[in-house]
Amino acid sequence: MERSILGAIFGGLFGISALGGLALIGASPNPVPGKPEGNWRLLDPVAYENITIFPVVSSSSQDTSPFLTLDEGLSSGEVIVSEQGAAGLARTRDGRPVIVPQYNTGASVNQLVLINRGKRPLLLLAGELVSGGKQDRIIGKDRIVPVGSQPLPLDVFCVEHGRWTGASAQFKDSKMIVHPSVREQAAVAQNQNEVWDAVRSGTLSKTPAPPSAGMADGYSEARISPRALESAIATAAPTQSYEKIYQHSRVGASVDEFVEELQRRFNRTTAGLKGERVVGVVVAYGGEVAWSDIFASGELFDHYWSKLLRSYAVEALARPTYRETAAITDAREFLRNLNGREVVESEPGVYRWRQITEGRLSLIELESISPKPMTLHRLLLHRTS
User: Suppose 178 and one of 92, 143, 182, 286 were both cysteines; which one would form an S-S bond, judging by CB atoms 3.0 to 4.6 Å apart?
Assistant: First the structure.
């Protein structure tokens, strides 16, 4: 009897692995509430105006050096991202020519083509921005692209609504990741119209109503206001390019000052760690814990930290809120696994992606299978919609 059951289980697993390609394993409940996967600890919060950042530290770390990041790959020429239907010549960072073959028939708003010519698997995070082509785009979903793979259809979302022309079909690295309101619509909602709305409005969170007379203590109007965004679009970003909007002087100067102060406070809080590394953060706006990004190693966190910090700052500046500091007990909730509906996708031998939804919370984990099994990136967020 036991042998029959085991045979059925292994037979089912073999059947799944034999499907090949990108396998959608399906939606199923996760019956057991999980514990934090890593040996994680929260440091004292870093608070400034309406944002609170809880550094996540760990005494253990994975070796993530076998993985290539998008910024590194595009800068070196090891990774090529092009419009569909494009053909031409690109060059690596040292000037070597690279022939880009033509694939598919025509350009598409929500799909590009990627080639990984490097010697390491490529790590992609949802919300990373590539600029160029006919429109600037962001990566639609966390994934890993193996070494030596064929030209890969890459799911993306447009963050430049008003342009469909370009001198080159190639894309370059922007060293930017969009802020959480935009990133959520790509990674979770997967809705192009909501992505555009979040780019134009700054935030999709339900913000508190302005206080009545005598109740204004601690209330902060959004420093990146709809008027400031409209001005940036009218004067510097008529195509509604995310990069140009959020680097425009009416917007970007405020972000730069905010980031500088946050970074100074973050450095002070995380200085002097012994036997531990910062591997992630939990982020709160006002009294609401809203977001977390945790990585498999301190090195990987360090690579993404500057553009993640800027993205968190943009979100904070776009949200009017009461100045409250979130409780560390609420932040710890973002270190647990969720118990809810689970959807899993995998590319056999390469990676496993899963999303668990519990109420208004969504957890997304990207696990590598080769060269070593590990959870490279863990995102948990409180959805705005």
Answer: 182
